[in-house]
Amino acid sequence: MLGQAYPDAVVELDHTNPYQLLVATILAAQSTDKTINTITPALFAKYPDANALAAAAPSEVEKLIVKSGFFRNKAKHIIGMAQAVVTRHGGEIPRTMEELCGLPGVARKTANVVLGSAMGLDVGVVVDTHVTRLSARLALSTHTDPVKIEHDLMAILPKAQWTPFAHRLIWHGRRVCIAKKPDCDHCTLAPHCPSAFAAVQPKDPSPRAEWNAKQRAARKGTAAAVATSKKPAPKSRSVAKQPRAKRA
Ligand code: SF4
After folding, report:
1. Are residues 96 and 37 in the same domain?
2. Closest ligand 1 atom number to CA of residue 190
3. Annotated catalytic residue, options 33, 34, 76, 128
């Protein structure tokens, strides 16, 4: 069904080789593919491969990726990743899960994206925020931990479907089964979905949802503090600012 709905589903980060997809995927954390696709052309023009990026000045990289959010950390990660690729792998992006996960800023999800979409290797299933949410809604997994969800999906799916299934689920999560308002009326999966038309959807267990909830709570806390705060008392003049006593 998802195959019919999204026969051409692919990763939506623009790239032409594994290096570019690895960098783009690291940058996409807590951002959107659309935003990252506006950043990477200039980044890849200046740093076309791991060797170039390994020698980059962090401040120069930061300027180019500022729109991605958390740009200082991300600059550190992609430069560190490139340096590790140069020193450990001769400048070539490695082709195993273990080696990829040994690079700075790279965990299983990022490694699965690169292995599946840039190298054609079905090593695992990409479990991002959409796959996490939809796996709960479709009752494909009862877990909240991405690695456990991935193992559940790997057990259900034939190996050749690991990569395309994840892309299709991600596309479905972006277009129909939206986090806040799933469009069950127009969902091809509705006849088989245990959460279809449910007044309350299963709690979104993704780390991103948790992060968003924390941000909302922090904003609420700040707003409440501002709303209830009294007019601040006028500052007393500090001792240092008192006029000096005249000497006798
Ligand atoms: S039926 Fe509704 S909850 Fe189930 S997958 Fe479709 S949109 Fe999501």
Report:
1. yes
2. 1
3. 128
218 contacts 145 by C-beta, under 8 angstroms: no
Statement to judge: residues 171 and 73 lie in one domain: no
Tell me whether residue 81 is in a domain: yes
**HSE-CB of 24 using CA atoms within 13 angstroms:** 28
Ligand 1 pocket residue status of 81, Cβ below 6 Å:
no
Q: Which two tokens stand for residue 119?
A: 């190298």
- Are residues 109 and 33 part of one domain? yes
Does one domain contain both 103 and 164? Answer: no
User: 8 catalytic, yes or no?
Assistant: no
205 close to ligand 1 (CB < 6 Angstrom): no
Residue 176 Cα, ligand 1 centroid: separation in angstroms? 8
Q: Are residues 108 and 175 in the same domain?
A: no
Q: Same domain for 32 and 104? A: yes
Residues 97 and 157 in one domain: no
Q: Which atom of ligand 1 is nearest to the CA of 176?
A: 7
Per-residue pLDDT of the chain (248 residues; tens, 9 = 90+): 899 999 999 999 999 999 999 999 999 999 999 999 999 999 999 999 999 999 999 999 999 999 999 999 999 999 999 999 999 999 999 999 999 999 999 999 999 999 999 999 999 999 999 999 999 999 999 999 999 999 999 999 999 999 999 999 999 999 999 999 999 999 999 999 999 998 666 667 666 666 666 666 666 665 555 444 444 444 444 444 444 444 43
Active site residue 128: yes
Determine the angle formed by the axes of helices 108-117 and 162-175, rounding to 10 degrees.
110
- What tokens does 197 get? 């038309």
State the catalytic residue, choosing from 8, 14, 63, 109.
109
The residues, any chain, with a CB within 8 Å of residue 154's CB and separated by 6 or more, are 124, 125, 162
